[in-house]
Amino acid sequence: MNIDKLLSIIKDRSKLQCKFDEKRNQLTLQIEKNNKLIYKPELVGNIDNSNIGAIVQYMQHLNKKSILISNHINKVLADKLQKANIEYVDFSGNMYINSPPVFISIKGETPQKKSISDITQFTLSVASIKLIFTLLVIKKPLEHTYRELAKMSDVALGSVSKTLLILEKHGYIVEKNRGEKHLVNKDILLSKWCIGYAEKLRPKLMIDKFSTDNLAQFKETNPCEFNFLWGGEIAAAKLTHYLSPQIITLYADDALPLLQYKCRLKKDNNGNIELIKKFWNFDTKTYKENHVPFILVYADLLSSLDERTQETAEIIYDKFIRKQME
After folding, report:
1. Of 20, 60, 114, 210, which residue is most buried, by most CB within 10 angstroms?
2. What is the pLDDT of residues 125-150, one digit of tens each?
């Protein structure tokens, strides 16, 4: 991150003195001699419609006063962040500070050359995203061997040790009784995972998109008959009865030609039925409605800007996930 450029932007736009303490990861804005704002910067290189929902949830789950820093935040996304009262600054000069007595709102600035080449605080690779999913879903994950975790997550053995070291370094794995390791701060890790999943993994998993002339009938298809699992809005609808799904998400190991034939699905790049490749290798048959794990349903919902869908994501979190994250 180009910290000098960032500080220059903040000083120019806010007319406040500011400094960054790299050791403490602390950004300070000086208002008066004895009055200052202290933030913990949260870096997200690229923000778009696919991950804005997850970013909002992540920022709202943080305990410390934080400020979002990104390369560029367009006006639509800025409105979304401001509505959630999430303070931000980007390298284009857009800024939102709402900490009395300071109020600054700047939107619509032109994108500049990228200045965040890497999220140095906590970078998630595709392999890390897959492994963290396993850690958050299965019971007592750290009691498994590295080899077992690698198999369940469909990643290389070396990726397991590397990811666990990163998690330990950033305070998500701690030693407790007699050297036993435990996964902690799971709610924040989940929010971080949702951002990484939307940005890096999900786009790589899309197998195909379809449309059908009889969507209502298709929604009643038995997943067991065709070896797939419901995800996203359709899974949430079956779990909460609060949402009328517009996007039908299916997760499967591979293409489903029999389903395509029997349900008369037509390949359609703009279709509202999406088939996504399943990326884990552990059993999920305990779910009554034949859906993917709850955190994946939640992550899929966060990729939508629709308010009703966002409300449903909160219902899913409160009803099925919150206790798991404690």
Report:
1. 210
2. 999 999 999 999 999 999 999 999 99
Task: Indicate the pTM of the whole model.
Answer: 0.84
Distance in angstroms between the alpha carbons of the first and the last residue of the chain: 33
Give the model confidence (pLDDT) of 214-227 as tens digits: 999 999 999 999 99
CA angle, 39 as apex, 38 and 42 as ends, to 5°? 170
Residue at token pair 């910290």: 3
Rg (CA), the chain: 21
Pick from 8, 47, 43, 10: which is nearest to 25 by CA? 43
Ranges for all domains in the chain classified under CATH 1.10.10.10:
126-184
Measured between alpha carbons, how far is 238 from 90 in angstroms, rounded to an integer? 39
CATH architecture of the domain with residue range 126-184:
Orthogonal Bundle (1.10)
Contacts of residues 136-144 at CB distance under 8 Å and 24 or more positions apart, as own/partner, are: 136/183, 136/186, 136/189, 136/190, 136/193, 136/295, 136/324, 137/280, 137/282, 137/293, 137/295, 138/282, 141/183, 142/173, 142/180, 142/181, 142/182, 142/183
* Secondary structure element (H or E) that encloses residue 18, with its range: strand 17-21
